[in-house]
């Protein structure tokens, strides 16, 4: 059994998806959904959708998959409770604090971990499974063998099969956020990856970051064989005809494969054309399932959309949206003079029989003139147009009776309403109302633990100057040997963090051994089975060498691997493990020895916790971690090249240069695209110093020795209390403005 999961950005899309054969639909309310520009659903529409879906044994999943600030958590219980009470099947979550809150409050509500959480290995799946997740939505960058390995853990997996593709690992992208404050982690991405860029000194622009749309209908049999439970169609921003049409095609071929295992899958030209003409880029492919990365996945030329066939779209609307499904019901009506009229209604829903009964308040009169006929009563009982039901069989018994039409209509409405109550209450008959009340009270208790940030940017349990500079480490992240030598020889820095590539330099180890400063290793951005051996080597190296104090992890996948390896040294969270609220910060502070403050929040929104944060005082923000490589796309792959570049320049159409770190390995290539300007928080240092701070972080990318010296000397004066301006260009964008 597999599930076909379809998107809905509005109610008509939901109807189209259900009517076209979706087993489940994912959608969002007016808060917490990662598609803020979609029409989305009111609470009344959500409840209506849940009830409609359950009539036909379908499910509704609610996206609660944005990173969430403290102040927004206060509304979460009121938002979810009525949906939970009406049978919501699951929530899709990214924020670890939101995950923990829902798990504690609505204990039997399934939680699906969003693709924004970047689960790329069996270790990430096991991490969330241990927390109580019912399902993980895997990162779109995985190959089929990697997917198979994760499904072997036993947790339900959900994978995208159709629709738009992000260039960055979803959930690890700050590009839109740092360019204009519209965060992808908050559902407001403006798609800068869809714009043209030039690489290095090229004069010709190309769409180097724009991936082709995914279309896997030709390999759906292989995906089924991989053990994926839920097949997900992307597109909550797309039209109702898209939701219905795409769903109908995948329903057809999934059913074919399930009914004909091992038989050759042949997709008709008509269905291929339908998928191409329903809001699809002219360039499509099967995503990463059959390749680790490829130039063919990138559109290069401007990715136009295929022209929608108006006649085809009209047919889809007429078939799936204008003609919704109806649940069949049976009536048994009796009206005998001197007795009360009785209407019984029954229905088989999801293989179970439900019954309801209603009767008139007064006894039925004998007809004085022409008696009411069966045909008269049947005419009224058939009037079910505004409901989700249609009449199947009807038994009517009358005996020279006078039955007003208004009475038949009244009894019909009452009987149908009672039947609906029976059907929908059945889902909750084993739930204890006391248990839910206790859970909701517990939720109130949890919320009182969320510390409100005062107007000085401190939490209420933090005292003035809770951490002095003497206790706060100054740690430099370095990527070149020259940077490492400078940092180790400069008394400003207390510790250093080195990249994996830097460890390949044979002189790095001797330099670290001979200095007295603690050293850390920055693990690669993502852990996959393809680079597992690299992670294991780095962890073993860190564990056995006394001069290494710990590591930085960028995913819960990496944390779980470290835990399974029994790693005893420090584990620090990097910038893509998010602590947006006190619940997530508290959770992360129990896992990690140090946690890094979110890069997207202003200083007022950063949560307050007893253990404190590490703050990035200086450094380029990593805007994207990518599975594809801009050099490979341009035919300049560096694998095996001893003179390969660590950094290349990517220029946008406004002439702004972004630094691209190119990790070209035999195991797993990746790019990290950095912001054009380094973030510098010198103007906010006094405010940061008021908080509990573990470490001041200085992150260097392609800076040369002279540039690092300039930054270092400047911050020496800042930390001594001087009010000066730097000699380098910088941004403090989010520290001041934050994100919406």
Q: What structural category arises from helix and sheet content?
A: alpha/beta
Main sheet makeup: 11 strands, mixed
Give the CA-CA distance, first to last residue.
41 Å
Domains counted in the coordinates: how many?
Answer: 3
* Number of beta strands: 29
The largest sheet has its strands arranged as 8-26-27-28-25-29-20-21-22-23-24
Instruction: Write down the Rg.
Output: 30 Å
Q: Provide a count of the helices.
A: 25
CATH superfamily of the largest domain: Copper homeostasis (CutC) domain
Helix content: 25-40%
β-sheet strand percentage: 15-25%
Low-confidence stretches: 450-470
| Arithmetic mean of pLDDT | 90
- General shape: elongated
CATH class of the largest domain: Alpha Beta
What CATH architecture label of the largest domain applies?
Answer: Alpha-Beta Barrel
CATH topology of the largest domain: TIM Barrel
Can you give me a brief rundown of this structure?
The protein is 33% helix and 23% strand.
Describe the structure.
- By secondary structure, this protein is α/β, with parallel strands linked by helices.
- The protein folds into 3 domains: 273 residues, TIM Barrel (Alpha-Beta Barrel), CATH 3.20.20; 100 residues, Nucleotidyltransferase, domain 5 (2-Layer Sandwich); 239 residues, no CATH class.
- 33% of the residues lie in helices and 23% in strands.
- The protein is built from 25 helices and 29 strands.
- The strands form 5 sheets. An 11-stranded mixed beta sheet has the order 8-26-27-28-25-29-20-21-22-23-24.
